[in-house]
Amino acid sequence: MENAGKVLAKIPRRMVFPNRDDGEFMQARKLTETFSVAEQISVDDIADIAAQGFKSILCNRPDHEAADQPDYDQIRQAAQQHGLQIRQVPIVSGQVSLNDIDDFATAQSELPEPVLAYCRTGTRSSQLWALATASRGEKGIDEILATAAQAGYDLSGMSALLTSLRSAGSTS
To answer: What are the phi and psi torsion angles at 131 (to 5°)?
Structure first.
């Protein structure tokens, strides 16, 4: 774990991956030394993700959410070809349950670090990170919100929920 933090520490807060067929650039945004989020990745991004030092990918997007997204299986195969661990915890936007938070936290803790989580825009993955972090009591609510904001995600509307989860001390 110590090595993972050193590797990701070298990665800038926002990374741009230039090798996409669609001419777009995928941006990864670092939330912690071992955890970053991004919008939808493509098969073409996987080599760059591995080259940046990520060891794992966490998909938070259900298949067929949009017609233009690659299926998880395509991403999984490419990730495995590049030696990356990958897990899917698909969350329908706006429909996060306590079980989803637990599943995300479990996947996050079991995957080798550093981890890149993705969804359509990165917001859902950042929200899940915030919810899991609050439920584990790892950071204060202000710190969670500030970390997300620094990465470009305004999660201030979740403040009461984060406080409730942190107070409960567990999502189980």
So the answer is: -65, -45
Q: What is the DSSP letter of 88?
A: E
Q: Are 123 and 27 in contact (CB under 8 A)?
A: no
Task: Give the predicted TM-score (pTM) of the model.
Answer: 0.84
One-letter amino acid at 122 equals G
List the beta strands (DSSP E) in 62-163. Answer: 85-88, 115-118
Map residue 99 onto helix, strand or coil: helix
pLDDT in tens, 108-134: 999 999 999 999 999 999 999 999 999
State the amino acid at position 145 in one-letter form.
L
CA dist., res. 107 & res. 101, Å (int): 10
Using only the alpha carbons of the chain, give its radius of gyration: 15
Q: What is the pLDDT of residues 67-98, one digit of tens each?
A: 888 999 999 999 999 999 999 999 998 889 99
